[in-house]
Structure formats: structure tokens, C-alpha cells
Amino acid sequence: MPRIFAKSRGLLLPLLLIGGWEYLSRLDAARAYAFVPLSTIGAALLELLANGELLVNLLASLARTSTGLVLGMFFGVLLGVLMALSTLANRLVGPLFHSIRQVPMLGWIPLIAMWFGNGEFSKVLIVSLAAFYPMVLNTYQGFSHVERRYCEVGQVLVLSRWQQFRHVLLPSALPSIATGVLHALAFAWVTAVGSELFLSSGAGLGNLMMNGEAGSRMEVIVLSVLCIGLCGYLMTVLFTLLSRYLLRWRNIR
């Protein structure tokens, strides 16, 4: 029983927040609009599930976020490795990269919309850029701070450059890359919803929120926010479990 209570402690704060939310919704009409009663949120959930609107918008945002995340991770790792292993590439690309990444991601949306329109490509590009920056930084950090003794062991074993990369550099950099993925995941969801709000075309949870605001349906906005938070949390948990499995060798060193 004590172990069960220990595992359920994480539910205490969410339950308190839900209770406080329901209490505020019952005080007066003004608060009932700002803090929608749970019964109203539940009814809206059943309505959106019945007409398929929630599922369509959720899958659209999930696909957009996942696609942008994968592309940003892939190109971010490539550039991070290149900058870490090549002094010339770091000198040529580094200043430009560090200058561009100072611009807030949502600040790129008007420019990207002018170049590519407000379609799916622009939204995925924005998400990819958001995931790209932390992946480059963490990959560069991981490959630049490999312990020298590991490299010396590779030289003693007369490993080729590819073997040294595969068996020495990459395993040492994986923890930092995994941290970059977690950061990229959070930025990807933020920019995915932000691009849907700014580039209001096609399906997505951002568009569902905009429709809820236009129709003064606070319960729809709350449901959209909950879906975003839940999806982001589940993706984080899944990747954390995957990274623990891939990095399980760290516990037996």
C-alpha cells in the first residue's frame, strides 16, 4: 500500500487543480465562462468525438508535429556532427547559425508565409526549424565533449574513422542528442500550434481553438489545450522510455 500511495502522489496536484477549477466555475456567471464546468467540457468532448471533429484536427496536428520533428532532428544531427567534427565547417556555418537562431520562431512565420504561402509546407517548415535548432546545439555539444581517453583507446585499437565514429563518438554523444530530442519535441508542439493559429488554413488543434474562440465556446478551447498537453506528455514519456532502453549500457559501465 505505501508503494501505491508513493506512485500516486503525482496525481495529487492535478486533482487539486481540477477541484479548484470546478469550484471557481460554480461561483458566478462570469467565472463560469472563464472556468467552464467539467460537465460542459465533458459534453463538448462527446460532441466533438461524435462528429469526428476532434479526431480529424488532432491527427492533423500530430502528423504535422511528427513530420516536422523528424525532419528537424535529421538535419539538426547532420549539421551538429559536421560542425563538431570539422573546424572549417564550424567557422563557416557557426556564426550564421548562431545569428539566425536568435530570431524567435514565431517571428519567422510572416516571412515563411510570404515565401511559401499558408499551406502545409509552411507549417511543417516552421516546426522543422523549431526542432532543428536544439538538435544542432545538443549534437554539437555531445560530439565536442567526448572524453579524450575514449578517443585514445580508439587510436590504440587502430580503428578507422568510421569505426571510431560508430563505436566511440556516437555512443558518447547519444545522451546529449537524447536531451536535444526532448527539447525539440517541446518546441515542435509550440510552433505547430502557433503556425496553425497564424496560418489558419486546414485542419489542426490550433484551428479548432480559433473556431472555439469565434463561437465563444470556451470548452472547445480547453479541450484543445488538454489534447495538446496530453499528446506532448505521451510523446515525451515514450521517447524517455526509448532513450532509457537505448542508453541502458550507461548503468553497467
Sum up the structure in keywords.
253 residues, elongated, MetI-like fold, 81% helix, mainly alpha
Number of helices: 12
Low-confidence stretches: none
Number of E-state strands: 0
Number of structural domains: 1
Helix content: over 70%
State the name of the first-level CATH class.
Mainly Alpha
Describe this structure in words.
It is built from twelve helices and no strands. 28% of the residues are buried. The mean pLDDT is 84. The chain has one domain: MetI-like (MetI-like fold, Orthogonal Bundle). The chain is elongated, with a radius of gyration of 23 Å. It is mostly helical and 253 residues long. Helix 5 (53-85) runs parallel beside helix 8 (120-144) and helix 7 packs across helix 8.
Q: What are the SSEs and their pairings?
A:
Layout: H1 2-7, H2 12-25, H3 29-34, H4 38-50, H5 53-85, H6 87-100, H7 109-116, H8 120-144, H9 148-156, H10 161-198, H11 205-214, H12 218-246
Helix pairs in contact: 4-12, 5-6, 5-8, 5-10, 5-11, 7-8, 8-10, 9-10, 10-11, 10-12, 11-12
What is the gist of this entry?
With 253 residues, this protein is an all-alpha fold. It is built from twelve helices and no strands.
